[in-house]
Design a protein that fits this description.
Elements: E1 2-7, E2 24-29, H1 71-115, H2 118-121, H3 127-154, H4 171-197, H5 206-233, H6 241-263, H7 267-316
Antiparallel strand pairs: 1-2
Length: 317
Amino acid sequence: MASMVLSKIQPTNHKIWKPANYTRLATKHRSICCTNVTPWDPPPVTYALKDDTTKGEFLTASTTFFETLNSDQTKSAESLTTNAKQVSKLGYIRWPMWIVGPLVLLATGMVPTLWLPVSSIFLGPNIASLLSLTGLDCIFNLGASLFLLMADACSRPNSAGQDPCLSHPPFTYRFWNMVATVSGFILPLAMLLGSEKGLFQPQLPPISFAILLGPYLLLLAVQMLTEMLTWHWESPVWLVTPVVYETYRVLQLMRGLKLGAELSAPAWTLHVIRGLVCWWVLVLGVQVMRVAWYVGFTAQLHQKTSLNASEVETASS
């Protein structure tokens, strides 16, 4: 804002006053600082957030343009990448297990029982024949163990971030499995006790009983131990374990029928072995139905969880 100042000349003589011949104009520029807004100026536009969780700090950024990464963050990122690479490598390794596992089970269990002649194994009612038959069953047990380990490895999640799949069998399943296993123990032992007491005639010698049903009882005990371990470890193979062992048990008892003719075993012994074959075929059918039931049960559970998740999403939206 400019202001004009008019100056006049005062003469030295105070008696006579004469106006000045000229007039000097002096201008001074003065600045005025005003904080009040005039009524005709528009008010400033302000923006306010409804949910102000930043406490007035909107779109805050760091002072430095390039941010440095922490060493812990880089290490964690490197570990995640290495874990992802390892998981991808394990995924490639798991694919051959789908073929190698059944082939191992076939080579160790079915091939010796179906194609190996009985005359090359059975040399008579002696200890050598018993050890030969037990060796065949031990070979199958090794193959079954490898198969179950491969099946457990294939059931694990592919990504490293996911938790391992733990499956806990229900109490009724474990109870009826134990009932079937104990029943398979009781019937041969009752047959041996009745033969020793003279209830069954003619009597069956102990060595003949050991050759016919000794490997059967040994593998039945191994199956019980394997099932208890899978229940304790909560491995998903607990549903497959009895199917594997019971399928071989049927072939094992059919081999016992052939050996009964070689040993000239009594007729009641062969009838007991046929009854055991029927019993384990029945139990095997129940086990297969349990597999179908478990698949349907898990499908229903997955459907319920998906419906609950969709309901939660709609409610939140």
